[in-house]
Amino acid sequence: MDADRREDALVEGFGYTVSYDRVFKSLGSMSLTLAMASPMLGVFVMNSLQIGYGGYFGMTWGWVIPAILYFPWALGIAELASAMPVNGGSYWWVAALAPPSLSRPLSFITGVTNFMNALTSMASFGWAIANSLVALISIHTGWEATNAYTMGIAIALAFLWLAMTCMRMQDSNTLYITCALVTASVVLVTTTLFLVGLPVTHSLQHLPFTKASQVFGSYSNFSDWQKPVALPYTFLAAAWVITGWNASTAIAEETHNARRVVPRSVITTYLTMSVMGFFVCLVLSFCMTDLEAAASDPSGYPAFTLIINHWGKNLGFAFLLIVLVNSMLGGASVIFMVSCQTAAFARDGGLVFNEKLAKVWTYSNMPIYSSVLVTIGGVILLFLAMSPIASSIIYSLAVIAVMLMYALPMSFRVFHGGRWVPGPWNYGRFSIPIHVYSIISILYITILECFPPMANWTGATFNYNWVVLIFALFLSGVLWMFKGRYTYKGVDQEALDAWRAQEALPSTSEDDIEGANIVIQGTSPRGSSCTAGNSVHTVVKGLKN
């Protein structure tokens, strides 16, 4: 029995109907992330933060240190995805690993928070792309756009992405996956052009390069925070740019050989983005000789200004426009990822109109109603962009809630009480130290995320991250008390127990495993009454690799 049949049997063993075709392979899974999260564009957008709080340190060590420190996050998520390759991701892992008495409430709260994070992720990604496009046009033409123009572009992008998710996707050669591969290829090509072209142009123009001793040995602070806050604040750029590497965990049920391909994609994507981002930062550092001018750049995008100054107004604009348009197309991957997570939560009864939201449209291999829901929800949030304070809230939950999504299942992995079953991608005795370190570092970066950007903050510059997160958790708790406790089914605990029991058996041949037939007696938490004469036969097949 091949890997796909084994993993479809695993999904069925958990109590679900197999609804998705497995269309993603290793390359397609990686391309999904690179298509939506170009490290080069991310560095261009966040470069002002690196310079403002650390100067050359922010662009070099301010990238290298956090990229290394955050790597165990990817290792931990990869191990969880290998053990439980279902689309639910963090909420599902919490449900499976938490004590049975806490499984339903905690997984429901995690799932609702995850859903709110999905909406803000959609809105914040669209707003970031639209804002970057407006800034680029402003640099090129001098045109000053209002928030209304930016919001209009972001809303148009959201509906473009929704249309793209309706493309046919029934095998690995269909249009959507081809688009993802092309978009990811453009990311690689444009990054290579930048890494080679900018220093060559700099040299041909007989401009001096920044000395290596300055690039790697100097620190400048243009903010009003003191060094103990300003220096680690530069780490946030890497946290925001090296993102989306967990996208493949949201499409595990659409991935061939998911227990191996998904974790491999998570780690490979993280490393690829880290290395690409480092070289982009390095080139910017050596070619950006006037830090004071960069820190006070009126556009807020000193990297854009540097490229246009080196390559000329038209060529520089054309290059940056290609990069931005490519990222616009890649934004469909955001809807794809969050729609699959939303459908998984609806499948367990976590939302309203759950049957509709969980339904997968055969033509596009997508939960189309979930796609419409997250698009409309994201568009509604974009209207907050009309207010400067409210627009910062769009980013807040998208930035900080994802940390909680990582930390909670990792905590239950450490204190699993015998509920943990490792997949083929696991770290043995190093597993718990990796997760413990990840939890500690996540707590640290979460606290750092809550600092306002200025020491002398006002209502307009205050960091609302922690306020928004507390409100989101409070709202999730209220929804649990008044709705979730009555309608949310949660994961099938009896099926999980049967799976764990099967995994605990001595290694069996594949043929024996295929024939394993575990009869679960009693009452299913999904509402199916079972008796001795009317048993639920859950076939747990192929759980050994």
TrEMBL record:
Entry membrane topology: Multi-pass membrane protein
Any one Gene Ontology cellular component term annotated for this protein: membrane
Residue ranges that the Swiss-Prot or TrEMBL entry lists as coiled coil: none
Keyword Cell inner membrane: no
Gene3D superfamilies reported in the protein's UniProt record: Amino acid/polyamine transporter I
Major location category of this protein: membrane
Family annotation (InterPro entries): AA/rel_permease1 (IPR002293)
Keyword Transmembrane helix applies: yes
Molecular-function GO term, any one: transmembrane transporter activity
Top-level taxon: Eukaryota
UniProt keyword annotations, A-Z: Membrane, Transmembrane, Transmembrane helix, Transport
Places the protein is found: Membrane
Transmembrane spans: 27-46, 53-71, 91-112, 124-143, 149-167, 174-198, 230-252, 273-295, 315-338, 366-387, 393-415, 427-447, 462-482
Protein name listed in UniProt: Amino acid transporter
